[in-house]
Structures are given as structure tokens and as C-alpha cells.
Amino acid sequence: MMKRETSLPHNFLWGGAVAANQVEGAYNEDGKGWAITDVVKRVKPEDRRKMAFPFPTSEEVKSFMEMDDEHFPKRYGIDFYHRYKEDIALFKELGFKALRVSIAWTRIYPNGDDAEPNEAGLKFYDNLFDELLKNDIEPIVTLSHYEMPLNLSLEYGGWTNRKLVDLFAQYAETVMTRYKDKVKYWITFNEINCILMSPYISAGILRDQVAEEDLLEAQYQAAHHQFLASAKAVEACHRLIPDGQIGCMVIGMINYPNSPHPEDVLETLYDQRKTFFFTDVQVRGHYPMYMQRFFEEHGIEIKKQPEDDQILQNNLVDFISFSYYMSSVSARPGAGGESAAGNLLTSLKNPYLEASDWGWQIDPVGLRLIMNMFYERYEKPLFIVENGLGAFDKVEDDGRIHDDYRIEYLRQHLTQMKEAVADGVELLGYTAWGPIDLISFSTSEMSKRYGFIYVDQDDDGNGTLERSRKDSFYWYQKVIATNGEEL
Ligand code: BG6
């Protein structure tokens, strides 16, 4: 029997996580093609708690391509594309052992279906990974972080089209071949279960491409294609990078029943499956039995090829990575109360929890719970690849930023993370979301800040882009230096 660890392993991967579309900017430089995120508008301040995910039509998207960049902050990000060396120096100062980044698919294959990759894009990531390695920071690379080529939406109908499986496999093969000596940790699709909430962001489906009554089936069909694409990336990783590891990635949502009413508990089970279905397929290699009934009852028929089951079964992920920001409350139909906002999943309000300025319910114990649930179910290593507090920061007259609320949020979550490890959970690492302020994914605001490093830029894109250290910078630096002993 393996011995239970009571403290974090010495090679624990401490660090931070960002996504290309939220930091890089330079959306049309060096041959990069249009990504679906380049046409997502900033949400108005009065709508910031609504969590309304864009679901545009093809015509809308085309008209957005003609509009000025100022409405689309992800086009300019925080200029990481040109400033990554300066930012990596700060990560090094923080003591990072790892940085999670994503590769923008559109820098490598600008349209997704190009015959040849774009050398300038490949070169950029060569430079980025070299810079990280030079600073002893392990790159953790996500292949697809909500930023697929827009052309694959407009011309193919997004992930509803099976052709995307091979196009993605080609992209994965290209980058793994190129970076096999530099990148050992890979992640396939960011928050793959988000496809149930956001057909456009996760799967590139446009509103005019699917009739409303067929949408649920299209979402599950798209998920099936992503499972296959993910399995092909797993196959490529294991073949090309013998010492590499590749994981799936989900929103690590923990669902609580609104009451002990058995029907509320049943609803909670159903909601919990919106996470577990996605890990079940990628960790166990087959569709769980409970989905057969769900598909039958919802009139969903997944189109599969004879070889699909084998592809899934033969290519299991090595670890389970997940984001964790909040928990959620489920109630039986018709019995709900006031709802709360959240990252992609809406929930009922939990009277025992406080919420962030964006309405996300803060629940450190939920992190311990979901870690235990994943580990008991699969007994595979976990990796927390996103966690953090999006908050408004105030710059004092002396330029300092006293973000004790962020320190408190992280301290409480790390305490629970350590509890889970003491419970027996195997954990590879922890990468805090947005270690440097970046463009919010859901609202495209700059003022929703997660960073230990402040970036001087406002919601309209004005500012010097100068970087500075917040109080949390020094706190996290100590956490890493003591391997989590001093929180
Ligand atoms: C996760 C995404 O859902 O949450 C990130 O993977 C995102 O891309 C993060 O930034 C926080 O969400 P937001 O909307 O506050 O940026």
C-alpha cells in the first residue's frame, strides 16, 4: 500500500496559469488568424453579474470582424506577446516552478485547416518555452483554451463537424513534435464541460447553425468529437514524448443539495454528472452507463464511427486537471430560490457563503470536497490549474496595492488543498489563475483582477501597461519558498 503524504511533495509544481487569448494580444501579428475570442465584445459594467455567454450568429461575427479593436479587449490583452520576458522575470522572482500557458491554435494554423503550419507562430512558442526553461519554470501547455480558429466556426460549424477531430489532431501532432524536448506537461481542452453552457466559446457553434431544439444534441455531438480529438492528442503525446504527461481539464464544480429533500439530492447528482461525465470518458475511456438513459430521455443520438470506442479506451489521460473558483447549489425543478452567478454554471444562492464582487460564491471547503471526490472515483493524480479571486484593486498614492482580500481567499483555499492532500489525494501542483492581471474571460474587463502582479491598463485599454508588485506578490513568494508551510 502506498504511504499517505501529509505534506506537499518536494517537487510540487507551484505557479500560475494564463491563456493566450487573455494575455498575448497581437491578435493579427506574424500571420495569426482570427480566433473566436477575437470577436467577443466587452460586457457592460451593469451586466457583469449576468454571466451571459455570447452566442452570436455568423452574420454578427462577420460584422464584429469589421469593428474597431477597442470593443474587443482580448485582441490586445496585456501585450504578453511582446513583454513575456519581463513577465517571466517576475514569475521567476515569485519562485514559480511552473507556468500554465495555452498555445493559440490560430498562430500555428491561422485558419485551422491550412496545409502547412505558420513558422512565425511556432517560433514565438519556441522562444516562450526557452525563456521559461532558462528560468527553471516548467511549461504546462493547454492545446485549446477557448480560442479555436474562427474559420472552423464559420466554415465547418465548429465542433459539431467531425472533420475537426483530424484538424485538431494535426495541430497537436505539429506542436508536440516541435516542442517535445521543451514541454512535458500537456492539457487538451480547457474546461471541456463548459460545452454544456456555452456552445460558441467551447465548441465554436454559431446560433444560426443549429435549430434551438437540436442544440443539446449538437453540444453532446461536439463533446464526442472533442473526446476523440483529446484521445488522439493523448496518443500523440505518449508516442512522441515518452516522459510526457497529458491531462484532461474540467470545471471542478461541486454541487450541494438545496435541502435534504431526496429530490433535491437527486438533482444534485444529475448536476454533478455535468462534471463527472467528462472526466469519466477521458479517465475511464468509455461513456458511463448513466448517460444512456439521459440520451434516451432527451432524444439524443450521438453519431459514432465503429472505431470510436476503441480510440477512447486506448488513450486514457495521465492526470485530471481542473479549475476551482466556487461551489454550486442544486434544487429539484420548481423548488429553487434566488440564483447566484458563477463561472459558466448558474447556481442557487448558498446562505452560508460569501460572494465575490462578481457574485461567485466563495467556498474553500468545496475545494477539499471536489479533490476527494475526483480522487476516490479515479485514483489518478490531480492538478489544480486554476483558482483565484477576481476583484477590484486600488492603487494607493505610493503605488502600492494592499490586496489582503486576495491573500485571504488564496490562503483559505490552499489550507483546504493541503487538507485534501492529508486526506490522501495525490496532487501534482497548483497554478493560481491570472498571476498577472489579464483580460477577464467572461466579461473581457480589465478591472476584474486576479494577479499578484498589477498591470496598468483600464477597461478601455488605456494605461502604460507597466507591471508592479501587489502585497499578494510577497505573500505568494513566501508560500512557494516554504512549499506551502507558511500560508
Ligand atoms: C475559467 C477560465 O473559467 O475561469 C479562464 O478557464 C477564466 O479562462 C477564469 O479567466 C476566470 O474567469 P473570469 O471570467 O473571471 O476571467
List the helices and strands and how they pair.
Elements: E1 13-17, H1 20-23, H2 58-66, H3 80-94, E2 98-102, H4 105-108, H5 119-134, E3 138-144, H6 150-156, H7 163-179, E4 185-189, H8 199-203, H9 215-240, E5 245-251, E6 255-257, H10 262-284, H11 289-297, H12 308-314, E7 319-323, E8 328-330, E9 339-340, E10 347-348, H13 364-378, E11 382-386, H14 404-423, E12 427-433, E13 453-455, E14 467-469, H15 471-481
Parallel strand pairs: 1-2, 1-12, 2-3, 3-4, 4-5, 5-7, 6-8, 7-11, 11-12
Antiparallel strand pairs: 9-10, 13-14
The structure holds 6-O-phosphono-beta-D-glucopyranose.
6-O-phosphono-beta-D-glucopyranose binds next to loops.
What does this structure look like?
This protein is an alpha/beta fold and 487 residues long. It has one domain (13-481): TIM Barrel (Alpha-Beta Barrel), CATH 3.20.20.80. It has helices at residues 20-23, 58-66, 80-94, 105-108, 119-134, 150-156, 163-179, 199-203, 215-240, 262-284, 289-297, 308-314, 364-378, 404-423, 471-481; strands spanning 13-17, 98-102, 138-144, 185-189, 245-251, 255-257, 319-323, 328-330, 339-340, 347-348, 382-386, 427-433, 453-455, 467-469. Strands 1-2-3-4-5-7-11-12 form an eight-stranded parallel beta barrel, surrounded by four helices. Helix 9 (215-240) packs across helix 12 (308-314). The chain is globular. The site of 6-O-phosphono-beta-D-glucopyranose has 14 residues, from loops. 6-O-phosphono-beta-D-glucopyranose binds at residues 19, 22, 190-191, 323, 343, 386, 390, 433, 440-443, 448.
